[in-house]
Amino acid sequence: xxxxxxxxxxxxxxMTLPHAHRLGLLTVTVDTKTAPAHQLSHExxxxxxxxxxxxxELLKIEGLTHVTLDIEHVSLDGLRLLESxxxxxxxxxxxxxxxxxxxxxxxxxxxLGIPGPAFRxxxxxxxxxxEAAVVKLPTGGYxxxxxxxxxxxxxxxxxxxxxxxxxxxxxxxxxAILIARNEAGQLAFYDPVEMLFDERLNLMxxxxxxxxxxxxxxxxxxxxxxxxxxxxxYTGILAVEFFLTTEGALLVNEVAPRxxxxxxxxxxxxxxxxxxxxxxxxMNWPLxxxxxxxxxxxxxxxxxxxxxxxxxxxxxxxxEPALFYQWYGKQESRPGRKLGHVTLTRPLNLDSKTALxxxxxxxxxxxxxxxxxxx
Amino acid sequence: xxxxxxxxxxxxxxMTLPHAHRLGLLTVTVDTKTAPAHQLSHExxxxxxxxxxxxxELLKIEGLTHVTLDIEHVSLDGLRLLESxxxxxxxxxxxxxxxxxxxxxxxxxxxLGIPGPAFRxxxxxxxxxxEAAVVKLPTGGYxxxxxxxxxxxxxxxxxxxxxxxxxxxxxxxxxAILIARNEAGQLAFYDPVEMLFDERLNLMxxxxxxxxxxxxxxxxxxxxxxxxxxxxxYTGILAVEFFLTTEGALLVNEVAPRxxxxxxxxxxxxxxxxxxxxxxxxMNWPLxxxxxxxxxxxxxxxxxxxxxxxxxxxxxxxxEPALFYQWYGKQESRPGRKLGHVTLTRPLNLDSKTALxxxxxxxxxxxxxxxxxxx
Lengths: 375, 375
Description:
Two copies of one chain form a homodimer. With 375 residues, chain A is α+β, with helices and mostly antiparallel strands. The first copy, chain A, is built from ten helices and 21 strands. In chain A, the strands form four sheets. In chain A, strands 10, 11, 12, 13, 14, 15, 16, 18 and 20 form a nine-stranded antiparallel beta sheet that branches. In chain A, strands 3-2-1-4-5 form a five-stranded parallel beta sheet, sandwiched between helices. Chain A has a four-stranded antiparallel beta sheet with strand order 6-9-7-8, covered by helices on one side. In chain A, helix 2 packs parallel to helix 3 (76-84). The longest helix of chain A has 17 residues, at 215-231. Chain A is globular. The A-B interface holds A 1, 14, 18, 21-24, 39-42, 280, 283, 285-286, 288-289, 310-311, 314-315, 318-319, 321, 325-327, 329, 340 and B 1, 14, 18, 21-24, 39-42, 280, 283, 285-286, 288-289, 310-311, 314-315, 318-319, 321, 325-327, 329, 340.
């Protein structure tokens, strides 16, 4: 029987593991002790996925055949160790090396002819604080911590070494597309999605699918996504994030080498969700049907304070029509931590304006009861 | 946070646990060591669910609030112990006591005015071997072992004590319906299904949904199901199995107090599957949308010999259109053991004759590759 290990046992592995069981795989999760997905795997390896030791431990697991990732910040030497032992690692260390480093990623995308913001590598000393630019840490940034628009003020102290400097983009829409590819080269595309601005949270927080864009723009996104996934010789599911500028240019922001926030709606709005699709791609199995079956509107449930957390108001949520939610099983809340998500749907026979109005109105009505209790 | 225990950690618990995680419950499984659903729960209690000891162990689990069943053959004294400790047990020991014993169940259904085969209690000595009757063990029968049609020959030796004797029925169709009820009294109905005769296996093996019956018969089934679930003061999901006789009479065969083989298709052919619905009912949460979204055709993957088993041919299965399969993660195969199931679907805009012809033809094509490897 095939046995697959997930490096990282966070919510993405958590949502993938039930599919692995259903499809007949044995499973291993690798992460620190409290990671939530350990609860759903057959075997657990406890340790720090950025250190090499845990990969040596993983090699001792009997019958392991495949390895994949729940997060891109893992030890490349660790992945190379697994590959040299004959394990099938998806995405491969060679592909991940390019994606992990945002500067290498930009160069590679440029080589592939993919449009992006003008960029350069620079040290702190080479950056003019008055530049209309966004400065990024090439590695290690996560959830916004490694991104600094200069208009916000002087660079924080943790920005040092060789930095990625990108021209500031005037953004009309943030778009994303998911694409999957298996080793045989089969591709599966999901429909483009758009991110909506949440006025209450003052951030790009809610996903709407399908994106309200012209067909030729959607085709262009798919074409870029295909060029990227083939150019990187990537196997698994890949999220490609785009900016549509106010001048109408389509630029690639970055790629994420795993299931992604921009695909959570596929749990309920597609026959094959992004998690099952990722597994199929990683196992080199035929990919599944990915077309969108409904309008979807997805937002995260974010921690507001620190403490042990639990979900409240199951009653009210489950009584809502067309509401699907996923709790991530994390024991601790922290401000801004992703604790779960909610997807609202509407039938595709509505026009998109009506559907979106209904979805926004439903969310508005729900905001008061979408509460997480902190102890 | 609510914590729910599953007495029995077989495939039904296995298919329910991912929903429990997603909806934000903590979980406990109770069963012998190799039971497959232990892999997906937060905590495990190892032991024999027909003995009282394991229930004493379960009472030591901190924070446990709810208890439900994966199988009806559990210790009633054990359930009473949990109830007297203040746990919410669904279905309750009082309800299960009636269902566990087929003779008590028949009497109760009769009191509720539900039509069934003529029946009586009898000892072996009181049974005429020439009778046109089916003899059943009132308790402990499972997967056909406790049912003996007298036309097959003399009663096996394990038929002793007080037996249930039912008139032999001339069956036109075997039908079933799933119904759920929560403590608040809310009901959810699934569409009636029919069992099809499999000529290769020579048994009623394949489910087709929705059943090809007249609307008034479907309404009658729903009405009986409602009378039963309310009459038994039952909470959770209940499967009601019917015979439609060659004379056109609708008789209740028996009820199953848990998710059931006749509802596996809801994993892919309904918004809320029977497993999530059962959880919602047991937690006294609002019930979910249960209408059928496609034609469904479901059959079990049965063990053919004894040995360690694994799934083969993922490639071929996953390449099939409209095929969904569920592997149960059992380590050992035995002849006739349920190791998984497959559901094929077709859109409801086809007429049922065409849909069924296509489904039978697809299954015929698949039979050669639906193989399980035995080591």
